[in-house]
Amino acid sequence: MSSILSYVQPTANSPWGTYLSQVDRVIPYLGDLARWAETLKRPKRALIVDVPIEMDDGSIAHFEGYRVQHNLSRGPGKGGVRFHPDVTLEEVMALSAWMTVKTAAVNLPYGGAKGGIRVDPKKLSLKELEKVTRRYTSEIGIIIGPHSDIPAPDVNTNAQIMAWMMDTYSMNVGGTATGVVTGKPLHLGGSLGRVKATGRGVFVTGREAARRLGLDLRGARVAVQGFGNVGSVAAELFAEAGAKIVAVQDHTGTIVNENGLDLAGLVPASRTDGGAVSFKGGDVIDNEAFWEVACDILIPAALEGQITAERAQKTKARLVLEGANGPTVPTADDILAERGVLVVPDVICNAGGVTVSYFEWVQDFSSFFWDEDEINVRLDRIMMNALNNIWDTADKHKITLRTATYAVACERILMARQERGLYP
Ligand code: NAD
Predict the structure, then answer these.
(1) Predicted local confidence at residue 2, as pLDDT
(2) Closest to 90 (Cα-Cα) out of 181, 8, 27, 198
(3) Is the model's pLDDT at 304 over the cut of 90?
């Protein structure tokens, strides 16, 4: 029998390769727990499923789906489901591992999981999208559940898709299981504040990091790559705090204005087919020039692997806030550290979404729902505490915030592993 690892061929900068190198860097700080470290490099369980559906034209199409449970030592698996034509088992493995680290870094009682389907949802009708979602949910239904693994939205999935997933799982178990997914519509057990939670978490960790660096947010210049759910919400909160959003890049291109882009106009323009560059309140520049824009804070909030070694050399930012998962390759990480650029790593910076997902899950179990202020106050407190704890660890060992986050998180994960012991 082959191991799960034999199905992937990671490279230094591929998602799973990046994750492995991040784990290697933390092992020296794990003390006696290092004996368990191999656990972190092996997903517990990976399910590959065939997702056949009848298309609107009567043909039969097959898509490949995945659900990986990387680690369940601290609680049920938690992690999104991504619909994208480039999804691979390797990518889902890395994303599930980052969820393990993320939930431990903010001390939520979860392990890490992730799912995906290799499909371009933009090429499906609504009916086909629903069929793909329901069949996939039914196929992975043998390993998900409110107490075992709780999916959520990720790239190209949303509240409607979560509603279909919840309904399909509920039909199969013969009840209404709202706690099986998070990110649901509000009237189906969703939580207030969930949609903006990740962007809000980016802002909260960024605000704390800026305070510790002595960087005043009033007048600070911010550049944002990716202007979707995460990037645009973070940008709005920074603008409310007095910062200037001087550059925005999305899939349509890059727009700049050194006096600050007017978000009241840019946000709706970016939601149209023309994207961010259809907004007239700035100048369109070459995409590569985005990485050299004069700014204090850089927020990558689009895709993996965006901050390469070359771009890390160019950036003028003092502070990088990783809204996206895995936006910085390991060689770039070293360059940023050498240049004195502080990076708030993804596993803490974008943990606001999973934190409010946790609130949603708790509210579903108690059937008692909190108001938005309560959600935001609790989110702020959890994120601030997590960041401050990690910052103190980084100061103590003279290590980067990323390695410190892994040190805090991996200690929690491996302590749970050790205390549970090996079965049988
Ligand atoms: P989204 O689909 O809402 O937005 C993605 C943005 O990236 C869009 O503005 C798109 O135009 C832009 N983009 C796509 N390709 C690009 C390219 N080649 N160059 C520049 N911009 C490009 O997605 P989102 O929910 O905002 O997620 C963004 C990132 O944050 C992803 O890495 C995701 O995994 C991560 N993340 C999201 C959440 C969440 O709750 N939504 C939580 C944690 C992490």
Answers:
(1) 65
(2) 8
(3) no
Whether residue 242 sits in one domain with residue 108: no
Q: Of all atoms in ligand 1, which is nearest to the CA of residue 327? A: 32
225 and 342 part of one domain: yes
Instruction: Identify whether 374 is part of a domain.
Output: no
Looking at the structure of the chain, the number of domains it has is 2
Name the token pair of 91: 């990518």
Q: What is the pLDDT of residues 401-424, one digit of tens each?
A: 999 999 999 999 999 999 999 999
Assigned token pair, 77: 């698996």
Q: Of the residues 114, 131, 196, 244, which is catalytic?
A: 114
Residues in a beta bridge with 114: 68
Rounded to 5 degrees, φ, ψ at 415 are -65, -45
155 and 205 in one domain?
Answer: no
Angle formed at CA 354 by CA 359 and CA 225, multiple of 5 degrees:
135
For the chain, the average pLDDT equals 96
Active site residue 396: no
Residues 156 and 230 in one domain: no
State whether 338 and 229 are in the same domain: yes
Please state, in angstroms and as integers, the Cα–Cα distance from residue 408 to each residue in 16, 106, 125, 362, 391, following that order: 20, 9, 44, 24, 10
1 has pLDDT over 70:
no
How far is it, in rounded angstroms, from Cα 43 to Cα 27?
18
Q: Measured from the CA of 95, which atom of ligand 1 is nearest?
A: 34
Both structure tokens of 386: 């997590």
Residues in the chain: 424
- Here the tokens at position 287 are 């995409």
* Residue 380: CB atoms within 10 Å: 17
pTM confidence score: 0.95
Ligand 1: lining residues by beta carbon, under 6 Å: 154-155, 198, 225-231, 249-251, 301-303, 323-325, 350, 353
Ligand 1 centroid, distance to 324 Cα (angstroms)? 6
The residue range of the domain holding 127 is 43-177
Residue 396 lies in a domain: no
Pocket test for ligand 1, best of 82, 248, 251 (most atoms within 8 A of CB): 251
Q: Which two tokens stand for residue 122?
A: 């933009």
Q: What is the pLDDT of residues 315-355, one digit of tens each?
A: 999 999 999 999 999 899 999 999 999 999 999 999 999 99
**Nearest-angstrom CA–CA distance, 77 and 79:** 7
> What are the structure tokens assigned to 322, written together?
């990783």
For 262, the token pair is 């007017």
pLDDT the model gives residue 12? 77
